[in-house]
Amino acid sequence: MTLSIAEEFVLLAYGDDDGKPLVKEERVKLVLVAALLSELALDGRVELDEDGGVAVVDATPTGDRALDEVLAAIAEVGSALEPRRWFARLHARQEPVRVLEALAEAGALRVDRRRSFGVFPGTRYPQGDPGFELEIRSRIQAGLDGGEAGERTAAVLALVHAAKLTGQLFPGADAARVEELVAGDWVGQALLDYYGRGDRGNLVETAFNTVFGDGSP
């Protein structure tokens, strides 16, 4: 079974044993927007135009709800918005649980429903079939070791890198090699600039835009 870029990132970004995210959920949501943009870009649906805006190349629905929501939103405003503005506009709408449930349905994760202190219900998604994550890690590690990395593998690594999880997931990875592999991924680079390399100003902008919008058409 082929996983989406969002599913591959989430599978890596949640703990195998406890099913908890390795970074704050706010960051997971931001990365999910980037993952959807990456999927659309690799599918030839969107591209970065010469002015740095995200432009729709093919508005035909993909049949995937999350992808089509993003595609329709971009088509509605044209290429006026840079990637960072889409991160700000769309991250609050992301629902990591949808991705987790899809992974559980595929068998990559297990559903662990429990009650904290015997009262408060909660759900965790620990690892299911380890083969799913092993395949992703093997592809990325092969690229880090000097092998060839396909566009999808580079896209997932770019998201891992932007989320500052490279060192935790791939200890000992050569920083220069990581940068080399992700350099051509415009979505990952945009996220890295916006959040991965971000300063307090960008975080404030994200919070402001979530509530009030970003002032763009």
TrEMBL record:
<dbReference type="InterPro" id="IPR008628">
    <property type="entry name" value="GPP34-like"/>
</dbReference>
<protein>
    <submittedName>
        <fullName>GPP34 family phosphoprotein</fullName>
    </submittedName>
</protein>
<dbReference type="InterPro" id="IPR038261">
    <property type="entry name" value="GPP34-like_sf"/>
</dbReference>
<keyword id="KW-0446">Lipid-binding</keyword>
<keyword id="KW-0472">Membrane</keyword>
<keyword id="KW-0333">Golgi apparatus</keyword>
<dbReference type="Pfam" id="PF05719">
    <property type="entry name" value="GPP34"/>
</dbReference>
